Amino acid sequence: MTTFVFAFLGILALFLGVFLITRRNPVAAAMLLISDFVILAVLYGLLDAHFAAAAQVIVYAGAIMVVFVFLIMMLNIPNEQIRFTRVTNIEWLLAFVGIVAAVIVAQASSLGWLQTAFPNAARILPNAPSENTRNVAALMFTDYLWSFELVGFLIIAAMIGAVVIAKQGRKH
Amino acid sequence: MTETNMPIIVQTIATVLKIFVLLGIALQVAPIMTWIERRQMAVTQRRLGPNRVGILPKLFNNWGFFGLGQPLADAVKLLFKEDFFPEGVHKTFYFLAPVIISTTAMMCTMGIPFGHSVVVFGQYIDLRPVSLDVGFLFLFAMSALGVYGVALAGWASNSKYPLLGGLRSSAQMISYEISMGLALIPPVLIFGTFDLQKIIALQAQGFWGIFYAPVSFLIFTVTMFAETNRLPFDLAEGESELVAGFLTEYGGMRWSQFFLGEYTMMFTLSALSTCLFLGGYELPFVTHEMLLSFVQKLTTLDVAFAQWIVVLINLGVLILKSAFFLLLFAQVRFTLPRFRYDQLMRLGWKVLLPIALANVVVTAIVLGFIRF
Asked: What CATH number should be reported for the domain holding residue A35?
C-alpha cells in the first residue's frame, strides 16, 4: 500500500516538474512548483522523515515561494512581454546528464552503497528509539555541529549582503 | 500509546471518525461566530443587531432567539446566489483560491488533539487525526500554505484592488509568521516535545504554559490576529481603502468559502493556543487519571464507558477555552481601528520580532541554568 502511494506520488511529482518548466504563465509555474514541494514533503513523510517533511513545507512552500509569488504578482508582467528562448543543445545535454546522475544515485541507494557514506542515517531511521525531530537535532548539534554553524554563518553573510545592496540602491 | 499493530481498516475508520468530530466542531464556528459577532457588535455599539430572525417566531410571540436564525438565512442566501466568473479573471486560479483557503484551514484543524487516548478493544486510539512525529509543526506547515489562497485570489481577479489586497496579505503573513514561529519555540524548549498531547499532559501535572511562557503567549495572540487577517490586521480586505481587497470580485458560495476558511483558521489557532498555553482539553489541576477515576466513582461505570464521558468533558473544555479566544477575536474587532500599512510592518519587524528573539534566548539561558 505504502509502496503504491509512494510510486504514485513520485510519478506525479515528476509530471508536475515537467509541467512546471513548460508553463508560460509565471504564476502557474510558481503554483506548480509549490504543489511539487508539498508532494515531495509527503514523500519524505512516507519515508518517516517527518521533520524534513515539515521543514520542506514550512520553509520552501510556506516562506520562500511566498516571496517568489509576491514578486511575480508585484511586477505583474503581461505574458506578451516575456521573451521565451528555444532550448539550446547544451541545455539538452545538461538535462540528459542530470537524468543519468539521478539514475546513478537511485541505483546506488537501492544497492546500499550510500549507507556506508552516511553511517549516521541509521540514527534517524523509523526504528530509532526517540522522536524524529529529537534525533535530527541530536545529530545536528553533535556530529554535524561545524557544518551547521557554517551554514548559519553563510546565511547571515547573505542577509547582510542583501541589506547592503538595498541600502546602496537607495542612495543613487 | 501507539496505533501500530492495528488492521488498516480499523485505523482508517478511526481516522475518519476523528476527522468528523473535529470538522463537526470547526465548521460550526463560522455560522455561530457570525451571529455572535453581530450581536456583540450591536451591544458594543449600542444598537439592536439581528433580533427578528427566529426559528419559531409565531409560537413564541415573535421572540427570535436573539436572531439565532440569522446564520441559517445567510447560508441559504449564499447558497442560492448565482455562481459566476467575472470577465477577465484567470478561471483556474479564481476557482482554486477559495478551495486552497478552506482546505488548508481544515487540514490545520486535523492537528488538534481533542482528548486523551481511549482504549477500544484493547487498542490505544489517539484522539487526533494526524499523529506525526513533528506534532504541531504539521499544523504550522498547513497554515503557511493558506496564504496562497489570498494571494491567488488577488492575482486571479485581474483587478487593481484585489491585487493590492493579495500583495499586502502575502507580505503581512510572511512578516508575522516568523514572530509566530519564534513565539512557539519557548514552550517547546520548556516541555521538550512537539507533541501536543504530551504538552497537555505535562501542563496538567504542573502549571499551564501561560505561566511558563507569558511573553510567548502575548506574541502568539497578536500574531494570531495577523495570520487570520482579522482586525486590526485586516489590511488584505480593508474596506475603507480597497473596496473589499482580495474578496472584491467574489460572491456567493465562493465568497463564503473564504469566510469558512478564515473562521476555521481562527478556531484552529485558538485551539492551538489553548493546547500550548491554557492546558488544552484538561481541566485545571486535574490529570486525566484523576478525572477518569472521579467519573467512574460518580457513575459506577466500567472504564470502557467512563472514558467516553471523559472524552466528552475534554471536548467541552477544549471548546470552552477556544471560545475565549474566539470572543477575544470578536471583541478586538469592535474595539481597535485598523493599522496603517507602515505601522503594521513596523510592529511586525521592529517590535514583535526582536521581542520574540529575545524571548527565545532568555528562555534558553534560564532553562540552561535550571537544568545543567
From this structure: 1.20.120.1200
The residue of A4, A37, A42, A58 whose CB has the most chain B CBs within 10 angstroms, and thus the best one to mutate to test that interface, is: A58
Which pLDDT tens digit goes with each residue over B76-121? 888 888 777 777 778 888 888 889 988 999 988 888 888 887 777 7
Decide if A73 and B166 are in contact by the 8 Å CB cutoff.
yes
B144: closest CA of chain A, how far (Å): 5
Domain, as residue range, for A146: 141-172
ipTM, interface predicted TM-score of the complex: 0.79
Per-residue pLDDT reduced to its tens digit, B270-291: 999 998 888 888 888 777 778 7
pTM score of the predicted model = 0.85
* pLDDT tens-place string over residues B128-177: 887 777 778 888 888 888 888 888 888 888 788 888 888 888 888 888 88
Phi, psi of B118 (to 5 degrees): -115, 155
Of B134, B155, B174, the CB nearest to A54: B134
Give the integer Cα–Cα distance in Å for B318 and B327.
14
- Total count of domains within chain A: 2
- Using a CB–CB cut-off of 8 Å, the residues of A that contact B are 1, 27-28, 31, 34, 38, 41, 45, 48, 50-51, 53-54, 57-58, 61-63, 66-67, 69-70, 73-74, 76, 131-133
Please indicate whether, in this complex, the C-beta atoms of B141 and A58 are within 8 angstroms of each other. Answer: yes
| Banded model confidence at residue B1, pLDDT cuts 50, 70, 90 | very low
The partner residue sitting opposite A51, judged by closest CB among B133, B167, B170, is B133
* Rounded distance between C-alpha atoms, residue B113 and residue B203, angstroms: 14
Query: Which amino acid, A26?
Result: P
Residue in the block written with cell 521533520: A51
DSSP state, residue B251:
-
CB contact under 8 A, A131 and B154: no
Report helix angle B214-227 to B303-335, nearest 10. 70
Q: Which amino acid is at B164?
A: L
A148 and A64 within one domain? no
Q: Which whole-number Å values give the CA distances from B134 to A10, A48, B161, B352, in the listed order?
A: 22, 11, 39, 25
Q: Can you tell me the distance from the alpha carbon of B331 to that of B30, in angstroms, rounded to the nearest whole number?
A: 16
**Which are the contacts of B258, defined by CB distance < 8 A and separation ≥ 6?**
B98, B101, B102, B149, B153, B247, B250
The domain of B365 spans: 8-371
Q: Tell me what the pLDDT averaged over chain A comes to.
A: 82
Q: Does some domain include residue A30?
A: yes
The yes-or-no verdict on residue B32 having pLDDT over 70 is yes
Closest Cβ opposite residue B174 in set A51, A54, A63: A63
